[in-house]
Amino acid sequence: MSQKRVLTGITTSGTPHLGNYVGAIRPAIEASRDQNYQSFFFLADYHALIKCQDPEAVHQSTLEIAAAWLALGLNPEQVVFYRQSDIPEISELTWCLTCMTAKGLMNRAHAYKAAVQANKKAGEDEDAAVNMGLFSYPILMAADILMFNGRNIPVGRDQIQHVEMARDIAQRFNHHYGEHFVLPEAQVDDQVAVLQGLDGRKMSKSYNNTIPLFLTEKKLKKHINKIKTNLLEPGEPKDPDSSSVFQIWQAFATAQQSAEMRTQFAEGIAWGEAKKQLFELINEQLKEPRERYNQLIENPAEVEQVLIQGAEKARQYSAPLMAKVRASVGIKPLG
Ligand code: TRP
C-alpha cells in the first residue's frame, strides 16, 4: 500500500511554546512514526517575512524551531524535514499559481479581511500596512502544499480556509494545464488540545501569554506561577474545568493523573501546590529534550546540516514536478 502523504509548515517567527508543543509538534512527531504515512515538515521562513521584518528574529526563530523539533524526537531519517527557502521550486511554483489565482479569491481570505476590518475601524485607509505578502499568502501556502502533492494537511482551525484555497487553485490549474496536482484536504484534530496561556486566553505569541518550551527550570517555575487563578483559599474546593492550571495539567498528564488532580481540586488543593505539581509534571517531560535543545542551539551547524540533507530529499520531488509544470505552461527549451 502506498503511504499517505502528510505535509505541514511551521512559520519561523517566535520561540516555540507549550501551546505549539501540545497542539502541533507532539501530534506531528507521533504521527510521523506511523509507517502508513510519509511526513513532510518544513520551516516556513518565507511566510515569516509577512509579519516579521526583523532579520535577526527570523534567523533565530528558524534555529529555535528546527532545534525544538529535533530535540523533541523528530527523526529526520524518517521524514522529509526542510526549510522552505532551500527549495527554489516553491517560489517558482508560487508565480505560476499566482497567474492562475483569481484576485477575488484572495480578497476573501480571512487574514486579509481581518486586516482591512481593523483599518476601517481605526479610520485608516483600507489597505494601510497591508503588504502584498499578506494578501497573496494563501498562494505561497498553496505552492508549499501542491509542490509535494500533500494530501493530508494537519492544521489549526485558522488555516482551514487556506487549505481550501490551495484546493481551488490546484483545481483551476489542473483544469487549464492538465492534471499536475493532488487535491489537498485540511485535517483538523479535535482531540488535540488548544492550550490556554497565562491569562486564560488561547496560548499564542500574538497575545504575549506564552510559556516557552525550553526555559531553565527556574524560569519555567516562574512562568507557571504566573498562570492566572482565582482568589480561592487552600481548603476551598476549586473548579478544574474553568482553570488554566488544570487545563495545562491535562495536556501533559495521563488519564489517571488527570483524575487524581480532579480529586485534589475537589479537596481544595492550594493554587501554589497545584502549580508546583504542574511544574514537576512538565519539567519531567521536558528535561531530556531541553538538554538536547540546548546542545543544538549551541551547534547551529549541526542543525544546518540536517536541513541541507532534508532539502536534498525534498528537491528530489520538487525539481521534476516543477520541470513538468514549467513545460505545461509553455516555458521550455526552443526547438
Ligand atoms: N500558514 C501556516 C500557519 O501559519 C504555516 C504554513 C505555511 C503551512 N505553509 C504551510 C501549514 C503549508 C500547512 C501547509 O500556521
Descriptive overview:
- By secondary structure, the chain is mainly α.
- It folds into 2 domains: 4-194 and 300-328, HUPs (Rossmann fold); 214-295, Tyrosyl-Transfer RNA Synthetase, CATH 1.10.240.10.
- It contains 13 helices and 5 strands.
- The protein has helices at 18-32, 45-51, 55-71, 88-98, 103-107, 110-121, 132-147, 160-177, 217-225, 244-252, 255-266, 271-298, 300-329; strands at 4-11, 37-44, 80-83, 152-154, 185-187.
- It has a 3-stranded parallel β-sheet.
- Strand 4, helix 8 (160-177) and strand 5 form a beta-alpha-beta unit.
- The two termini are 41 Å apart.
- Tryptophan binds next to strand 1 and helix 7.
- The site of tryptophan has 12 residues, from strand 1 and helix 7.
Low-confidence stretches: none
The unique ligands bound to this protein are:
tryptophan
Gap between N and C termini: 41 Å
* E-strand count: 5
- Radius of gyration, Cα only, in angstroms? 22 Å
CATH architectural type of the largest domain: 3-Layer(aba) Sandwich
Task: Name the CATH superfamily classification of the largest domain.
Answer: HUPs
The main pleated sheet reads as: 3 strands, parallel
What percentage of amino acids are in beta strands? 5-15%
Number of H/I helices: 13
Q: What coarse outline follows from CA principal-axis ratios? A: globular
Q: Classify the secondary structure makeup into a structural class.
A: mainly alpha
Helix content: 55-70%
User: Which sequence of SSEs, written as H and E, runs from N to C?
Assistant: EHEHHEHHHHEHEHHHHH
CATH class of the largest domain: Alpha Beta
Neighbour order of strands in the largest sheet: 1-2-3
Annotated CATH topology of the largest domain: Rossmann fold
The total tally of domains equals 2
